[in-house]
Amino acid sequence: VAAFAKRRLETTEDPASNEPTAASVFAGERFVSLAPALRRGRVITWFAGHDVDLRGATLDPSGATLDLRTMYGGTQIAVPEGWRVRSHVLSIFGGTAIDLPGANLPADAPLLELRGFTIFGGARVTTSQDTSWTGADSEGEALPPTV
Predict the structure, then answer these.
(1) Helix count and strand count (H, E) for the chain
(2) C-alpha span between 74 and 4 (Å, rounded)
(3) Which pTM does this prediction carry?
(4) For the chain: N or C, fewer Cβ within 10 A?
(5) 51 with 129: CB under 8 angstroms?
């Protein structure tokens, strides 16, 4: 089913898209967004790791929603400092971690809402991509295995 879905998924190539779809099935992927007014997006991660970098994006003034579909893998989302993130992600045998500084952000700070699910995997939101979940560095080169 996952191999069939991989062939049918249409992913966004344009980093300036305000409604991107990023997918990784059986292979790690990295998506960098430079959206001028991000409204919504989808991240599909099956049997893989996915790094989503939103630090170059600007949210729509009304906020944005990111729909996660993670199974047997992990999705890491990097956001700029100053964004509020609210999770409505259902996690089964996994979890969602929001590791952001600045709990005292103003109520009108940009809001990113996470929706969707993680099954046998997880999602992490951070302000820095200090580690890759795809097995690649920021230029896409394969990282050496950890010892």
Answers:
(1) 1, 10
(2) 20
(3) 0.81
(4) C
(5) yes
